[in-house]
Amino acid sequence: MNESSERSARGAAGWLPHGVDERVVTARFALAFFVLAAAVFGLAGLLAWGLVWLWPQTGDAGRFRFPPAFFWTTLLLAAVSGWLEAARDAVRRERQELLRVRLALALFCATAFCGGQTFGIRTLILSHRPEDTVLGLNAFVVALTAMHALHVSVAVLFLVFVTLQAWRGRYDHEYYFGVVVCAWFWHVLAIAWGFVLVIFLMGLPLSGPVLPRATG
């Protein structure tokens, strides 16, 4: 049996060394997945808290504002997409170490993206008046950003899974479907975020300070 056939056979069997209980390996993988996912979201939360501490915005209710954090989080999202595409190229060329490094870099950028987006969403909420919960461009953008954030959360979990699988040696030049799907997931998120930004920026020239409503 040549090396490629042997690798395929081991991949189909879950990359289990001889004599190792599959249940033990599955349990260890589940634990690693939980710990890494918790660490990613925990670090993202710490980053968001740190940004709030450094720039404690008081908000400007009634004024439609573009959060500056969205500029650099957009670059981070593009970086995640780029590193995943580079990871796919690495596994196609059977560069295992390079695959793992690029997936780790993608996960790092995804963590920073989550933290920055949380900070940016906070800026949107602070500039939103409670009485405009349903109507208004600001409310619409907040809703779109929140929906995008939910999908990003799922994408982060997917990226954690693929990264751990890569460190287990699960992927090679013949089998890397998980890397491809994960990459396309993030590509679609990047495109969707681009549409959100377009809607946001188109609304900026039309927005401005909202005059106090008359009472009585």
Looking at the overall shape, the CATH architecture is Up-down Bundle
Number of domains: 1
Largest sheet: none
Q: Please tell me how large the radius of gyration is.
A: 22 Å
Task: Tally the helices.
Answer: 6
What is the overall silhouette? Answer: elongated
Low-confidence stretches: 1-14, 206-216
Average pLDDT, all residues: 81
N-to-C CA distance: 86 Å
Strand-pairing-aware structural class? mainly alpha
By CATH, the superfamily comes out as: Cytochrome c oxidase, subunit III, four-helix bundle
Record field, number of beta strands: 0
CATH topology (level 3) name: Four Helix Bundle (Hemerythrin (Met), subunit A)
The helix/strand series, from N terminus to C terminus, equals HHHHHH
Strand residue percentage: under 5%
Write out key terms for the chains shown.
0% strand; 216 residues; Four Helix Bundle (Hemerythrin (Met), subunit A); mainly alpha; 6 helices; disordered N terminus
